[in-house]
């Protein structure tokens, strides 16, 4: 009889734990509506993740990315044995990059340099392109493709046609 009592008590405890566990877990699970709402909120956050906008320009950018853009913008203006990548140095790209650098001036080590360069470029003065290219090239550990001079107007036009024409 004692054994039967022990079995009933153990089974009763197991049943109580199972019922209690079921309600505990059920309480922690979200309803389908709550899951849908949470998924929607996550998607919304992901769409705007990292977006800090200023004048409709996303200004969240690492300094190394700014350096890459500057470097590739100089390729339209410099003579170098190797040129890897190119970004057109048009007014819109210059203005966008200037906005980004100004928004991050306190975070970038060389922000004053970038701003000075971009302000000259905004005025159409690319006479500093060789020194800008080589400064950034050196920051990025360049070993091949040091700029040695400025392209002629005809060479700039040809470079633009080869790299930026649709």
TrEMBL record:
Superkingdom, natural source: Bacteria
Keyword Transmembrane listed: yes
InterPro entries given in the database record: DUF6241 (IPR046208)
Keyword check for Transmembrane helix: yes
Keywords: Membrane, Transmembrane, Transmembrane helix
Transmembrane segments annotated in the record for this chain: 7-25
Protein name in the entry: CTP synthase
Organism expressing this protein natively: Planococcus lenghuensis
